[in-house]
Amino acid sequence: FEWCLANSLALQAALMNYTGQIEYHLPSHPLCKLGSQIRTGQKQLSQKEPVADPTVYTDGSGKAAVVWYDDHQWQHIVEQQEGSPQIVELCAVTLAFQRFTRAVNIVTDSAYVAGLVQRLDKALLGKVSNALLFGVFQSLWLTIQKRSQPYYVLHIKSHTTLPGFLAAGNAQADQLVSAAAMGPVPNMMQQAIESHRFLHQGFHALKPQFHLTTTEAQSIVAACPDCQGEHVPAYYG
């Protein structure tokens, strides 16, 4: 009965306003008696430790973005979504689950979304007054309930300048949803500055990517507080 209550929308709807007690009796069959003596439960989908690859990154602000690294390059899915950043971020996680039905690690910079998704595999879906939010909750909940493979959710600080693969993936997702808000960049030099602010490329990478001179590329790296000591100083005679 507990499993049916957790997985049957029809049963949940039928008992929504019921405040009494429910009793049920199993038939006197040997298998039913055995079942009452053996503890069974739904498989734990949300894990406390990372699972096998892939690792995907989600972000949301007007657009829901899912980013992952495959075939030696960054791949992504981006969809326009309505609602608050939290709602759009939930949509992004739903997209990630729909795209990756196998075991997956999900990295998000929303503590709200991370805490919710970590518990949603065992939760009952309650009524929410916000129709848009309820629809997003329902879609995500149903997507998780259909899964058979585990997942792990990690919260990462947004806009972090720390080095590492996780920060790089989060920066890629952030760029996808922030591009519209940033608007057109006036020139290649400014584009290079904005790119380095997220990805912290060396001047050797900046120079051909944005058609800069060596001095211009070095000056961008030298001006970055997170890259001090990493750039090659320019000497003038």
TrEMBL record:
PANTHER family: ENDOGENOUS RETROVIRUS GROUP K MEMBER POL PROTEIN, RNA-DIRECTED DNA POLYMERASE-RELATED
GO molecular function: RNA stem-loop binding; RNA-directed DNA polymerase activity; RNA-DNA hybrid ribonuclease activity; zinc ion binding
Top-level taxonomy: Eukaryota, Metazoa, Chordata, Craniata, Vertebrata
UniProt domain Integrase-type: residue ranges: 187-228
Keyword rRNA-binding: no
Top-level taxon in the UniProt lineage: Eukaryota
SUPFAM superfamilies given in the database record: N-terminal Zn binding domain of HIV integrase, Ribonuclease H-like
Gene3D superfamilies: 1.10.10.200, Ribonuclease H-like superfamily/Ribonuclease H
Ranges of residues in domain RNase H type-1: 50-182
Keyword annotations of the record: Endonuclease, Hydrolase, Metal-binding, Nuclease, Nucleotidyltransferase, RNA-directed DNA polymerase, Transferase, Zinc, Zinc-finger
Protein name: POK19 protein
